[in-house]
Design a protein that fits this description.
This protein has 237 residues and is of the alpha/beta class. The protein has a single domain, classed as 2-enoyl-CoA Hydratase, Chain A, domain 1. 46% of the residues lie in helices and 17% in strands. It is built from nine helices and nine strands. The strands form two sheets. Strands 1-2-3-5-7-9 form a six-stranded mixed beta sheet, sandwiched between helices. Helix 1 packs parallel to helix 3, helix 3 packs parallel to helix 4 and helix 5 runs antiparallel to helix 9. The protein is globular, with a radius of gyration of 16 Å. It starts with 5 loop residues before the first strand and ends in a 5-residue tail after the last helix.
Length: 237
């Protein structure tokens, strides 16, 4: 599959999604729809054992599209944030493993995408990773707080969220955004190799285990996203 923002390829039972908007890989509605479609494609194909989300060189994702977030249209902003929540929820609940090939910067919603992925391999290079919302006058929606609480190190929650601490790639491993770092030119191959290993897992057992482990959090996120769409988010910004 190919479109202006996401190009996919299949390699050894892995669906690789190359994210590239030519800029900062902002999460626009079109980008969200393209990634969501790739996840759904993988879940519905018995020949796919895992997914890799691969950023453009130096930039995994800078977060939600600022033209919407700062554009003054509250309805459009709520819709975009809720759609991003649905994307993160679908990744976190996916019945196939999702591996992030984090090529560099991952801020705000970009960092949330990392938190939603099962395994996160990052480039060992100067970059900024973290949840910077409070520093720029925004608050995280409830669904994002739920996800962050599930995945970030408990030692780092205070610094990561209320005080908006941004870290480099190695610090992101300690905080819980990443699982390991490798040389920048090895990120994609390392992520694909990890994804290929998942072919040895029993697909049904994996899916059932994910539902048991994450079902409560996924259901909570769904409720929080629905509340955002009903106007709850407007009261928080």
């Amino acid at each position: 599959m190919s479109d202006a923002l996401v190009t996919t390829e299949r390699r050894d039972g892995v669906l690789i999604c190359h994210l590239d908007d030519g800029k900062a890989n902002a999460l626009s509605n079109d980008m969200i729809t393209a990634i969501s479609g790739a996840i759904s494609e993988a879940e519905g194909d018995d020949g796919i054992h895992a997914v890799v989300l691969h950023g453009r060189d130096g930039k995994f994702s800078a977060g939600f599209d600022l033209t919407v977030m700062l554009g003054g249209d509250m309805a459009a902003m709520i819709d975009l944030v809720a759609n991003g929540g649905e994307l993160c929820r679908s990744i976190y609940a996916a019945n196939v493993p999702v591996v992030a090939a984090c090529t560099g910067h991952a801020l705000a919603a970009g960092a949330l995408i990392l938190l939603a992925c099962d395994v996160r391999i990052g480039a060992d290079r100067p970059c900024k990773i973290g949840l910077n919302e409070v520093a720029i006058g925004m608050t995280l929606p409830d669904w994002a707080l739920t996800l962050a609480g599930e995945r970030l190190s408990k030692r780092h929650l205070q610094r990561a969220i209320p005080t908006a601490r941004i870290t480099d790639a190695r610090g992101a491993v300690d905080a819980g955004y990443l699982d390991e770092v490798v040389a920048p030119d090895a990120v994609l191959d390392a992520a694909v190799a990890q994804a290929v290993e998942f072919a040895g897992l029993d697909a049904k057992a994996y899916a059932v285990t994910i539902r048991k482990m994450r079902g409560d959090a996924v259901a909570t996120m769904a409720e929080e996203i629905a509340a955002d769409r009903s106007g709850g988010l407007a009261a928080q910004v």
